[in-house]
Amino acid sequence: MLRTVNVFKIPIMIVFVCIIPLWRKVSEDWAWEQIYYNGGSTRKAVELLTEGCWEKKEWNWMPDYLATLLFGSCNLSGTSLIDDADLRGANLSGANLSGTYLETANLRGANLSGANLSAANFMCLDYGVGNLRCTDFRGAKNLTPEQVKSAKNWQQATYDEDFRKKLGLEVKSQNSKVKSMEK
After folding, report:
1. The dihedral of CA 123, 176, 136, 168: what is its sign?
2. 40-60 average pLDDT score
3. 125 forms bridges with which residues in the sheet?
4. For burial by CB atoms within 10 Å, which of 11, 12, 64, 132 has the most?
């Protein structure tokens, strides 16, 4: 019985040491291709790149190179997620989004707990004829004012009324927003 258990240890170690890192590398390469060639608008690719972030933080005792092999780098720092990136409901907890360009990204209902948003760029783009689109955080989960205020142009993003109050921003009704876009 004991020998049988020992025999299974070797294949399990091979899976963890060889196959999982190889699978992760292939998956991450695919995800980066999707982001670069589709203008950052692929939610599946972004989630794949950030799927192991929480685990990586929980296993912080593990050497960084090994944690990165097993859980991914969790680093989207400096990435351009523009062109109306649809990240509604995405799980971005623990992701490094520092310096990421999030112009017009839709992050409604996204889980941003522990995400690093320092120097991330939130902006509005004017598509003409009153068509102004901004980074949208309405309904985002686990988002703190400190995270948001560490980003660039955070005042330009769209937030829920309650969160606007926490940020110390003027609470605007939907009607006043439409009127301001018409001017």
Report:
1. positive
2. 77
3. 133
4. 132
Say if residue 113's pLDDT is above 90: no
The predicted model scores a pTM of: 0.69
pLDDT tens per residue, range 136-182: 899 888 889 999 999 888 988 889 999 999 999 988 654 444 333 33
Distance CA 56, CA 38 (A): 28
Query: 124, 144 in Cβ contact below 8 A?
Result: no
CA 41 to chain centre: 12
| Three-state SS letters, the chain | CHHHHHHHHHHHHHHHHHHHHHHHHHHHHHHHHHHHHCCCCCHHHHHHHHCCHHHHHHCCCCCHHHHHHHHCCCECCCCECCCCCECCCCECCCCECCCCECCCCECCCCECCCCECCCCECCEEECCCCCEEECECCCCECCCHHHHHCCECHHHCECCHHHHHHHCCCCCCHHHHHHHHHC
pLDDT of residue 41: 55
